[in-house]
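A common beginner's mistake is to predict each chain separately and then try to dock the pieces by hand. The better habit, illustrated here, is to supply every component at once so that their relative placement is modeled jointly.
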Amino acid sequence: MRLSQAIHKLRYLASLSRIAQSLLAIVMGFLAGGIMLWASGYNPLKSYEIMFIGDPESGVQGAFGGYLALSNTLREAAFLTLTGLAVAVSFLAGMFNIGVEGAMYIGAFAAFLVGYFISLPLNPFTNLFHVCLALLGSIVAGAFWSYIPAVMKVKRGAHEVVTTIMLNYVAILTTKMIVLRAFLPKTGIVPGGILTPPISLSARVAPIPLPSRAELTLGFPLAIVVTLITYFLLKATTLGYEIRAVGLNPRAAEYGGVNVGKALIYSMVLSGAISGIAGACDVLFVEYRFNSLFSPGYGFDGIAVALIGRLDPIGTALAALFIAAIHMGARSLQPALGMPKELAMAIEGLIIIFTALPEALNMLISKFKGVKVRK
Amino acid sequence: MRDVIVLMKDIHKVYPDGVYALRGVDFELRNGEIHGLLGENGAGKTTLMRILYGQIKPTSGEIFIKGNKVRFNRPRDAIKYGIGMVFQHFALVHAFNALENIALGMEPSKGGLLNLKEVEDRVRELMERTGLKVDLKVPISRLSVGMRQRVEILKLLYRKVDVLILDEPTSVLSPIEVKELFRTLSKLREKGKTIVLVTHKLREALSICDRITVLRRGKKVATVKAREVGPEDLAKMMVGREVLFRVGKLKGRTGKEVLKVSNLWVKGDLGTYAVKGLSFTVRGGEIFGIAGVEGNGQSELVEALFGLRKVERGSITFKGEDITNLSVKEIRDRGISLIPEDRLGRGLIADFTLTENAILGMHYKPPFSKGFRLNLEESKSFARDLIRKYEITALSEDVPVKFLSGGNQQRLIVARELSRGPTLLIAFQPTMGLDVSATEFVRNGLLRMKSEGRAVLLISSDLEEVVQLSDRMAVMYEGKFMGLGRPEEFSTEEIGLMMGGLELHEVKSGNS
Ligand SMILES: Nc1ncnc2c1ncn2[C@@H]1O[C@H](COP(=O)(O)OP(=O)(O)O)[C@@H](O)[C@H]1O
Ligand SMILES: [Mg+2]
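With all components supplied together, the output reads:
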């Protein structure tokens, strides 16, 4: 009996080591990046210090090296947390959903419509009401958008990778076209994209001022709230249980009385809703208008974020912070060391790839081997 | 005393991950005997034989072949000394035919090339002598499991081994194939070969072996003459205590009709009919058994009964209500439980914890769900209850079930399905791959259900199980029943013939 208990214990510890695996992957990432830095003639330790803290000589701030840099890091982390959660929720159900980017655009556009066409006399209550209404609009729109590929999969068997990629194009290009057609006289065309006129004052949320003229937009606290809600939904509700069950073993879920198609649809609807919120954050908290190119690919980065976070909501939020910091930090290498932009990007990519690798491999293996069976 | 061909002395084996698999085992093999190596799953049988075959090295201990001390570094060394082993999972190249597989890895004769014709002649002669007939020119992938096993044996005989180790050779075979295998083994014994038959099936060991060595938890319990012991003795040695062996078939009061299946037609995955017009009833307080070789429509029948597969024609009535083609949830909620065939494929979610698995299928009902919320506390205490009541060995209820042994996984499934207090329990291959104590546990569970007046439908390819447990039974072949009646009405031979596709009346008339 004691022997078999010991075996159980060993096996259990092996499962806990997933966290150790993640940490090891991060270390590997930094090592790989370090080798590349060293080979290119830079001091790795010094470079990493600049990335995260800063360079006192040139006055460049690293990702966490000052209020201004920190506020940028957190703004980025907010988007990545939300898109990461959106990806995680669908991946957990076994849906290879590449459509977060598109659903985010649809959500942003819906938030803009509600913010633009409704205008309320300005006081704190109408402000709160209007913002909530716009958020709701983005949630519904994003959810609907992701519902489409889910239904196509469940009813017709259309593969979600294909449909969600296509729907990304539809979302991004359609919103752009509408902006051009409907708001043409009033649009601003800037290198960053095509801009609509601004939304009503009652639909805007001003950032929280920080010292040194830095500002914290509402995106980050909202992302934390959404993280906690998602955590609760997945771990403590029947729906979350069914979504995870379907993702891990659809045959067993079916046997347990779970309607597999329904669970897939719910997971996608949830994913779309979170994507929608991500889009609304830009419109309501940052730009106060719809920008046809507002996202640098948050929806796609969300895939790496979710994988690094091992599809766990809390892990995903931490991974988002990590990626945002690497991203912001890589930007400070350039001015501080005169490093070429391409090299900085390569370092960033290297670290991210190494960190995301273990879970990506896990997923691929389980996808191709089906359920893993002992013995 | 006949001459000892193999002697293993005080063998210890600790695997790299710390598992102490063998703790000082002595093993003696005499020339020309069939020696059974018996023990529960995990007793160390495979480990001991892999050591003899040179596949792994003992941590300590000595091996003597015909009195000479040997030290094997690889199977090739063992084969040189005339020792060969057939594994549970065969190691054949699927794209090659039998002949090529047999020739594979042999030393080329002359000019660096292997003369396949020469090999074929010798193999054919070998087949003639041993009765092991195989189609040599068909790719392995098209051969049945029984045929593949023959190829493995031929491969070893071709390499001129004197000692043949077979690891659980019957676990993959149908009853008829088992008979054929045993006939072959007897023949090989006549030809002077020595055979080790690794198994955890008592009757098998008793039916063919000369001597039997029993292992329990890495230690040798005893070596006995098969003639001098009965199954009860062996079971006791294997498990270390008395086991309920002849389960008393209590004359239960059979109750009302619970399940009625009429003219049921169900399609298989290939789109052809796998269940062809079955009709039967199951009453409260009885176990209705369905025997038959795997793959004769049993899976499709079970899935159709439980709402997992569409019924094309016919009807399923449960307590007077038509439940044909209802959803799994609706069927579960009416009081039907299922112990599925495939533990980790259907019955459990490997990465879910014990707690999460314990509520599967009840997770949407109070007390485990309150509105849309899961009641985690309630679920945990329920899981702890199951662990205690059903003696599941687990570190805690928070451990993913993939870290449980197969027996404990099955206990969990059985615990979960019985605890629902179903009116009808469908048990599909409920003891497949389980050791003696887990098997006993499951069978007792079924009997308890019956004694509580519940209906039990037992579908199993383990004939002994069906005959022992059932009040009434049927034999299924290609989607139909070949015969239906009380187990006492049939002889083993008759059931065997029905499993092979003969209808009851043909069998009876042929016998008289
Ligand atoms: N390759 C291995 N590595 C670690 N432990 C093993 C290995 N093979 C078997 N074991 C362990 O050794 C014990 C004996 O296993 P085995 O010899 O396969 O038993 P049996 O064949 O009697 O079922 C079991 O606890 C099993 O888990
Ligand atoms: Mg074994």
